[in-house]
Amino acid sequence: MLVAVFDETIAPQGPNETSIPDRLQPPSWEHLFGTDDLGRDIFSRVVLGTGVSLRVGFLAVGIALVIGTVVGLLAGFYGRWVDDVLMRFMDMLFAFPAVLLAIAVLAVRGPGSGNTALAIGVVYIPVFARVTRASVLGVREEVYVRASRSVGASDLRLLTRHVLPNAAPPIIVQTSISLAFAVLAEAALSFLGLGTQPPAPSWGRMLAEGRGFIQDAWWLAFFPGMAIFLTVLCFNLLGDGLRDVLDPRQRTLMAGGGR
Amino acid sequence: MSDDVLVSARGLEVHFPIGGSYRKKAAGVLRAVDGVDLDIRRGETLGLVGESGCGKSTLGNALLRLVPTTGGTLTFDGADLTGLEGRRLKELRRRAGMVFQDPFASLDPRRTVAQTVGEPLEVHGLRKGRDKAARVAELLELVGLDPGVAGRYPHEFSGGQRQRVGIARALAGEPDFLVCDEAIASLDVSVQAQVLNLLRRLQRQLGLTLLFISHDLSAVRHISDRIAVMYLGRIVEIGPAEAVGTDPQMPYTQALLSAVPLPHPALERERKRIVLSGDVPSPAAVPSGCRFRTRCPHVFEPCDDVDPALQPVGAPGQQAACHLHGIVGTPATDAPEGITATP
Ligand SMILES: Nc1ncnc2c1ncn2[C@@H]1O[C@H](COP(=O)(O)OP(=O)(O)OP(=O)(O)O)[C@@H](O)[C@H]1O
Ligand SMILES: [Mg+2]
After folding, report:
1. How does DSSP classify residue B315?
2. Ligand of minimum distance to the alpha carbon of B70
3. Per CATH, which fold does A2-258 belong to?
4. Predicted ipTM beyond 0.90
5. A147–B109: do the CB atoms touch at under 8 Å?
6. Least confident of A127-131, A148-152, A240-244, B225-229
7. What is the pLDDT of residues A189-213, one digit of tens each?
8. Are the C-beta atoms of residues B96 and B179 closer than 8 Å to each other?
9. Is A153 on the interface with B (CB under 8 A)?
10. In chain A, whose CA is at the least distance from the CA of B170?
11. What angle in degrees, to the nearest 10, is found between the helix axes of A113-140 and A42-78?
């Protein structure tokens, strides 16, 4: 995160500054992560790629989270035909292989990071819909939901104040997992040449470009790979932490050591 | 209907489909509430007793329109409740509240006491901002809690305290009618009496009409003005608490009562238990005629095919549905309602 915010300041040189004499340099003090086949500084590109990868990841998961959660909430809460119609539609979406679906979206809308985010987002909508629905099915039967209805709360209020907050933990966990996967998916699509377009730095593209040199210049693929790995790990830890912070029971334990 | 009746049910039915869904036709019906006639008078506490599964909760929920009724009529303060929608249903929700059995399940774990108790105020637009906080504090005090706990979460409280929060929420909209469904059943014995007394005090102080559902007959006798006894979805005896509690007219009530231990050791030794034979029939296959006949020690000829109606017996105001007091009711042959085909 921090890296993404300070990218311009940290990066020692422009992402596309080429320097042919310096090409394929191994990691050194001058080029921390080495240089690629065009003599570009890998450290700079990894740092600047953070912003691209994260933006696409967040946007994609944001799309999937909002639409998927609303669909799952409605399907789980109302059940019956609402559930049938919505979830059949989600199943259809889910039945497509993810990459195929993303490729289809990109084929229609053309490549570019905004469309990549949309494509990945569409793929993840059914995942969020399912997770949310399953969680809602448990929560909607809770006595406190009935209690709230008994004092006159509207469906909208029940959904937003009681059902969603209590159904949220698995959704939060899913969000962190999906963020990780979205970053991977962006990398994969860029790897296939469908995502972020060159020369913009993207971890996936760098991985793809580095693949050809893996024998002679491991750093080309290694550092972008590490960046993806660390990001995925961070999102997972973040998800766990967030879930605990949002639970009032945990919060009291942490704050007061139990009253 | 007279003016002093707040809630009135006639032939009220709540039947649940068995094994069906909204697309598939149900394989049968479960008669959770099956022809209940009941008048609850303004300002009284009516105790509702009966074995587990006889439909007490379903009846309580039906009176508040929390489960859909499938037959009969229902009025609240003279207004028809069946088919009530939108704003008028919301107004009923303000005027009639519910206290739930399990205080660990009935409070949203993610909402503070202030949010929970204040919810009816928000929903009905009764108080805002500082006024709301003040009203919440007032309500907490009313149920014997320190107003300082408003910012806390349910898990920080004991069962008894949580139940007080639940009661405060039910009272927030200044209701006329409160259904307490086993409101003390899941509390520690030492706490039960406190909450029972709280409910009694609130009932008097606020002039509430109370439906107190319980299978604990002694608690019901302690708090109720009248007692109604339910069996397999029907009210089989009703009357002043004193009369029903000491001189029951329906064999089922007699059996229920004989199962209550007596406080005095000498009396306890004298106590004769009437043990009913057999199990409660399933509400999916209600016996024809009198629904209690399969377990009744006094069963005789008409019980098979005449469904007994409530008739005045014993003390003034007492009614029982039993042929021992004269055969009154609908014969099975020409009243389809009385018949249940047993497959
Ligand atoms: N939503 C429902 N769908 C189907 N059947 C139901 C439903 N609610 C209750 N029942 C059935 O209706 C019957 C009456 O249930 P109810 O909960 O009203 O009994 P009760 O007298 O409150 O019992 P308890 O003392 O155990 O609380 C039971 O057989 C129950 O299984
Ligand atoms: Mg019950």
Report:
1. S
2. 1
3. MetI-like fold (1.10.3720)
4. no
5. no
6. A240-244
7. 777 776 666 666 777 777 777 777 7
8. yes
9. yes
10. A151
11. 40
Q: Do B170 and A151 touch (CB under 8 A)?
A: yes
Specify if B82 maps to a domain.
yes
pLDDT tens-digit map of B282-333: 888 888 888 888 888 888 888 888 888 888 888 888 888 888 887 777 776 5
**In a domain? residue B77:** yes
Distance B57 CA to ligand 2 centre (A): 4
Classify A151 as helix, strand or coil. coil
Q: Are A51 and A110 in contact (CB under 8 A)?
A: no
Answer yes or no: pTM beyond 0.90: no
For residue B221, give Cα distances in angstroms to A54, B147, B227, B234: 67, 32, 8, 20
Predicted pLDDT of residue B235: 92
Taking contacts as CB-CB distances below 8 angstroms, the residues of chain B near A161 are 108, 111, 119
In a domain, B59, yes or no: yes
pLDDT by residue (tens digit) across B148-206?
A: 888 899 988 888 899 999 999 999 989 999 999 988 888 888 888 888 989 999 999 99
> In the structure encoding, which two tokens stand for residue B232, read together?
């397999």
- Work out how many domains chain B is built from and give that number: 1
DSSP letters for A67-81: HHHHHHHHHHHH-HH
B120 close to B126: Cβ distance less than 8 angstroms = yes
Domain that holds residue B79: 5-20+27-95+175-248
Where helices occur in B106-263 by DSSP H, the ranges are: 113-123, 129-142, 159-171, 189-206, 217-223, 241-246, 251-258
Residue B9 DSSP SS3: strand
State the sign of the Cα–Cα–Cα–Cα dihedral B286, B290, B296, B300. negative
Q: Which residue of B has its CA nearest to A248?
A: B110
Tokens of A144: 């406190």
Pocket of ligand 1 (CB under 6 A): B 16, 30, 32, 50, 52-58, 215, 283
In a domain, B164, yes or no: no
Domain residues of chain A, as ranges?
2-258
CATH number for B236: 3.40.50.300
Q: Is the dihedral of CA B20, B26, B30, B31 positive or negative?
A: positive
The pLDDT, as a whole number, for residue B178 is 94
Other CB atoms within 10 A of residue A86 CB = 20
Answer yes or no: do B109 and A166 touch at CB < 8 A. Answer: yes
